[in-house]
Structures are given as C-alpha cells and as structure tokens.
Amino acid sequence: MRTYRSLFRTAEFTPFLLSFATFAAAQTIGGLALATLVFRATGSPFLSAVSMFGPQLTQLLGGAFLLSAADRLPPRAVLSVLALSFAVCTTVLALPGLPVWAVFAVVLLQGLVASLGGGVRGGMLNEILTKDGYVLGRSVFNMLWGLTQMAGFATGGALLAILSPRTCLLLAAALYALSALVTHLCLTARPPRSAGRPSLSATWRTNALLWSSRHHRLTYLGLWVPNGLIVGSDSLYVSYAPEAAGMLYAFGALGMFAGDLAVGRLVPPALRPRLATPLRLLLAVPYLFFVLQPGLALSAVAVTAASVGFAASLVLQERLMSLTPDALAGQALGLHATGMASFQGIGALLAGTLAQLTSPAAAMTSMAAASVAATLVLAAVGRPKERQSTDPGMRLNNLPDPAATE
Sign of the CA dihedral 70, 74, 76, 80? Predict the structure, then answer.
C-alpha cells in the first residue's frame, strides 16, 4: 500500500482519524489553556511546564500496572471511556477557585488514565491496516497529529486573546466528549486481540518479555530519550515567549507534519532505517542556537526545522513492529507510548527546573545538548549489531505467550 487513495479506501481508517483528531484538538487547546492559567496564577516557568507535560509522568505508573489491558480489552470501549474521562477531568480543571495543588492532582490522574491510549490506538491501527500499509498509515496519523497541533495551538492562542483560560478548558472538554461519540458510533466493536484478563502480573510479564530483547531495548531508548529531552525544551515556550507560545507550538507542528510527510510518503523503504540517527540529531541541533536568545522569527525557524526530526519516531516504530509478534503489538506500542510520555514528563521537569534556576533560553539549549549526546551514544552502542535488527530470528515469536502461563 503506497498511495493515499488506497489508504483512505480502507474501511474505518477515516473515522479512526476523525476520532483521534478531535481528541488531539482538545488536548492541544486544553494543554495551552492550562499552562497559561497556571503561569498567570504563579509566574513560575517550572509549574507552567509541569502543568502541560508533567501529567505524562504518571503514564509510567500506567505502563507498569495497566498496559496488559491494551490487548485484552475491547479497543472501542477503552477509547470511548478514555475520552469521556478526559472530558470530565477537563471540566473540573475549569472550575473557578480550584487551588494549584488540586489542578495538579487532576492532571496527574489524567496522565494515569491516558497510559492506555497509545497502546489501544496503535493496536487498533495495526488491525485496521494491512502490514504493507502500516508505515504510510502511521505517517498519516502522525501528520494529522502535527496538523491538529498546529491548528489547535494557533486556535488556542487566538482564543486565549479573547477568552479566559477556563472558557478554553470548557471548549476542550466538549471536544473530548465529541471524540467519545465519534469513536462509539463510527468504529466497529472489535474483540480483544489477546486472551486472558488484564492484570498487574500480565502487564509486568509482557513488559519484561519485550524488554528482554536487546534490539527492543535500544529501539525503545531511541524512541524515548532524545525525544523526551527536546520536549523539555518545547515545554518552555510559554515562559520563553508568553505572548507567542501558541505560534511557536504551531510552527513546531508544521515541522512535524513536513517530516512525517517526507518519511512516510517520499522516502523509499530501503532508505528509512538509515535516517533514525540523522533525524534525531536534527531534532536537537537547532535548539542549540537558543543560547543566543534569538528573536521570535528566528526562534520559529529553529523550532520548525527541529520538529522535522520527530519523524525519527516513525522509522523506529517501523523497526519496533518488525521485531514484535502481532499478539503483543498493542502492548509493545503502549509501552512505547508510555515510555515516551514519561520521558517527556521528565524532560519537562528537568527543563522547568533549569529555567527556574537560570533562564528558559539556557535551559532549552542545555536540553538540546543532552539530546545530541544521547543520540550519539545510542548510535554508537547500536552500530555493531545494526544488521541483526532486521533478522527474523530476533523477533519475539519464538518466546512463550505471556497469556499461556496464566
């Protein structure tokens, strides 16, 4: 499957994208509104960054306790309940007079609930598409995320100029509810992909199985660490340029869209595996120029160029799926989503702390330097056995099914 026409002829692919786009729009508008609300109330770059990206830290707990549900519960029901729970939590965040500690309690709860989303969506996409259509479909999925972020942050920035952050949060809650409705009405009620009950032991057993492979470990670390450090830089846009943060996020989403379009549609499949390290370096290097505290125009150019590098995740996800049997696809993608979100939360914490002690520009530069170093180390460690990563014998098919031991 190499054309968009054949991709969009696939049953349920379009409603799947619409459901996700509505959810993503709510996430971007609500996240920007919440970060602005917290920054206006506290004046703290640290709390502003944590309010927007800190909830992802709790996805680490979800990854440890809940991920087996990604393959062992009906996916449509999980996604519907997830969107409804976000609608309720976002409505609570819009309540006037809510203390800062209560705001963080609610958003951390959101992060815990969200830990199932990546695995369930990834697993459902893997079912909707054929094997040869996964990379193109995932690139469209990522491009949609980029476009929705671009439109959502731009719209959110415009709305915050005329409406209060709490009103924008209520709008986000309505979008979450709409996403739940589209999911329930337009997607098929599929059975779970794997037998057995979701449980703590099943989650740990499968996570250990996935982590036992050296190739999985290196792939996961490549997906998580450089990305998380750069998202730490992204989390400082509100404190770096309070009046233009929405614009910077929108330009970042534009760069993400361009990268996913190029890698998913234009780059030949044989060339894609070679782009993982160059794209991860591109993700970080433009942020090194923030040490000069560039103006808004140059900052937007740097953010756009750097965000093209987010397409590295598309290359590495393709590698991850080539190493993973279908029965574990949901949890494998869920572990990726959980780890990525957790490292993004850690990146936001680190960046916010550095910005509090120094300045947002200095913190953004430091996080970029750390990302470059992490990419080079991972490339050096993985190079000696790079050729083995596509060896079918390195897949987990020959290992026992975790459900069989229950």
Answer: negative
